[in-house]
Structure formats: C-alpha cells, structure tokens
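re: that chain from earlier
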Amino acid sequence: MTPKARQGGRRVARTEERGVIVLAGEDQNDCEILASLIRAHRPDLGAAAKIVRINDPVRLRRKSGADLAAAVRALAGKARAKALQQRAELLGFVVHEDLDGFTDAQYDRIRTTLTAEFDRQCQGFRTAVALAAWESEGWLLLWPDAFPRVRPRWKVPGRLLDKDTGRLKDAKEELKRGLGLPVFRESDGPAVAREALEHRLIPSPRGSNRSYRDFVGDLTGWT
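^ sequence. v structure.
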C-alpha cells in the first residue's frame, strides 16, 4: 500500500504531495542557471516542485536518426527514474546544451530536430529545450546589472550591452576579458543567475537572444 499523509483534512498519497522538475545539462553550473530561470518564468511550478538534476552530460546537437533517438531515450528514462526515486510526479524535464554557434539556420535545424524527438518520446510529461547560443554566458549577458551584485568591481563593457547575444561568439571569453578582476569563471554563472532572479531582472532582459526566447516559450507553454 502506498504510504499516506494527512493534508488539508484529507489523506493523500505521498506522490501527490509534491512534484519534481528534472534538469539535464552539460554540467552542474548550467543546471543551476536553469533552475533560476525556471523559478523566474514559472513561479507557480518553482514554488510547488523540487528541482533536481541528473548527472549524465548532454551531448545531443551532433546526433541524428537512431543515435539521437537512443540518447533521448536514455535521458528520458533517467528523468523518469529520478522522479520515482523522489517519489514524486515528474512535472517537467529541461535539457540544456551549449550550441557553440549562432542563432542561424543551423540552430533552427538542430532545435527543430531535438524538440521533435523529445516530443515523440516524452508524451507523458512536459519538456523544454535550452539550446543556448553561443553558450549559457550569452544568456547571462541579458542581465548585466546582476554581475556587479556578484562582484562589486565587475562591469559589463558597453560593447556587450543591448546586443543580440545569440550573435556573439564565445560570450564566456568576452566576460573573462571585459568584466575586470577577479576574472569571470564558469562557476560564477549560477551566482549571476541567482542575483538576476532575486532582484527581478529576468523579466526585463537588456538585449535579445532567440535561443533564450525559444526556451522561455517552451516553459510558458507548459499547461
């Protein structure tokens, strides 16, 4: 028998008490950035659900056909298993990979292919694809005022402000060169995202990035 717990004057199954959103990404830093973005754009789910990560690195953008189907099947299976481990309903599955390229025709092709495969294999739960162009740091540049909240001496240079950051090559290196000391590291990214969330910067990005907008579209389309 499923364990029961009392809530609101009635007894409910433990699996009804909470849900999980499962993240898969290139590394933990990327997943922590995603968690802040989910909480900003879906506060309803962010408050009600636990956000958890599977450790398998995502390597999908160069795959196609049977190889892609097998890789998505493995990730989706890990997401389902994580929800079972947590004894919770799988509310959503978010998958991140850096594009290492611009938001161009190749981006359109890769994202369309990945989205179609996740839709085909994950019909029982909601999915979102975070195919970051050029990389996650390109998304972080949309909130330049968050950087000095992490390191007071940091200032995003004017040449990087109010741009289409999906057309900016290697934003990570631009930040390393342009912010000042101490030198930006990948591990600083989650702190920047948390400051952007805490200070409500995420709803009002400076500049644009179509890959970010597409990801937000996936999230807001969850019903």
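The radius of gyration is 18 Å.
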